[in-house]
TrEMBL record:
Subcellular location field: Secreted
Family: Belongs to the plant self-incompatibility (S1) protein family.
GO cellular component, one term: extracellular region
Residues spanning the signal sequence: 1-20
PANTHER family, per database record: PLANT SELF-INCOMPATIBILITY PROTEIN S1 FAMILY, PTHR31232
UniProt-listed InterPro entries: Self-incomp_S1
Taxonomic source organism: Salvia divinorum
Protein name: S-protein homolog
Keyword field: Secreted, Self-incompatibility, Signal
Amino acid sequence: MIKYSLFLLIASSFLLQATSSPDSPPSNCFTKKYAVYIVSHLPPNTPPLHVHCISKDDDLGYHNLTQNVEYRFAFCVKPLVTMFSCRFQWNGKDRGIHVFEASWGNNRCDSLSRDGICYYAVQPEGFYFTNVYPPPKKVGFLCDWNPKSKC
């Protein structure tokens, strides 16, 4: 009975810790913490970038990003389970991307620091990525706006 109770306590803590927070990273993670940053590097005087991010457990709402505006959310990962995807819409373009997936064999968001960083810069030609924050001046090209291209 004690083993069963201990198992339930540990399992519950893992389930509760994966909740995301748009304001600040969770401070009591039992697993690795991640932060996802999305910044609009779209031209001035164009429509804002519309972003909607969700996971199985969380709907982070709709956000309109004007030029150089950054949106961030953070979470504790549930190993092999946590996945966040975002839909990006801008100027007639529409693209969905998995911005974090715990089941990635080589997680692109892992960095040399204890916490994982997923930094996405959205530009007219597509999406750029780095796992460093603050980002370097040049970040690597990830994919274009074509929904059929691999991201």
